[in-house]
Amino acid sequence: MSDAKEPDQVRTYEHVRKIKYGCNPQQKTAAYYNLKGQKCPFEILNGNPGYINLLDAMNAWQLVKELRVATNLPAAASFKHVSPAGCAVAVPLSKTLREVYGVKEGEKLSHSAVAYLRARQADPKSSFGDFAALSDKVDEQTAKFLKREVSDGIIAPDYSPEALAILKTKKGGNYTILKMDPDYTAPEMEYREIFGVGFAQERNHVQLTAEHMQNVVTKNNKLDEGVVRDLLIASICLKYTQSNSVGYAVDGQMIGVGAGQQSRVDCVKLAGGKVDIWYLRQHPKVMGLKFKEGTKRVQKLNARVDYIENDFTEISKGQFEALFDEVPEELTEKEKKEYLSTLSGISLASDAFFPFPDNIDHCSKRGVSYISQPGGSVQDKAVTAQADKYGMAMCMTGVRMFHH
Fold it and tell me: At 127, phi and psi to the nearest 5?
């Protein structure tokens, strides 16, 4: 911290209120605090959040606020265990995605509803029991979509009266609803205590913009406006994802986030597997599954993913087949491979440099055409050469985004 002022030796907090428990129910004593003399930046309109809920809320709010500024579009995020399962901005949905995401035919969607649907449906299995965030006022339509999902809470700058009434009925009236002050600015320094030791650091205040995507180092140097938007979404998403992290984006939404892996190439593979599932949910055989009447929406969602993965035990296969009047024909590996081969134009971001070219090899299997990464590795030339072999366009932002 040689170029910055020294952190305060003492920081004083004021107790705000107790919360239901810490990370686990046995950690019964838990609360949240304000810096002395500062107002709490959010208000609890409903429910009683837990410790992890509030961690999710604070990170998710920062993410959607930055996406809103960077793209000038309403943004949404779906958080689980202090990492986004999905985030997105309000880019219109295709006819196929409207069907996959459960939108009724002919239904007009508000911008906030589009952003929320894209964020929640990126990886709905991971989003089960999430904490949602929206950059703009939550309207009635968005609240209706949110009401049908299993979710712990939401943070947003405001709610319409109709939306608030709908959300207050979730979880037997115990759904957590937080109203965030959109004008709140956090202090320059961040502090935490772990095992009796205090730590301090300057906040990661870098605001990523299109300017960070201008240093294109590959022979293919074409990044159109939509690609820059997607690279920004992926990069900003990773700023609030537990590191190491890599993420894939397309058409204004994340479609695969790989978080918290010690090996970067494992992040690429983990997130890539999520991309496969996201895309295969659009396969005609998956969309055409005929469920028994009365099958619940969540059961259908999980069954579609199970059908794609085809990783059954004898017992689970019987439970899967019981959801249908007629057992569906298998989606073969050949069919999956053929369908996935049509995926293209995907953007990928990494929160730190790629240490080896194998990262490029693996992301090429998921239709990646565009990459943003900080650069700075001794392997930068080799990684760039590998990207050139696949015809990718890759920029180096010069900004590392580790988050812990």
Answer: -80, -5
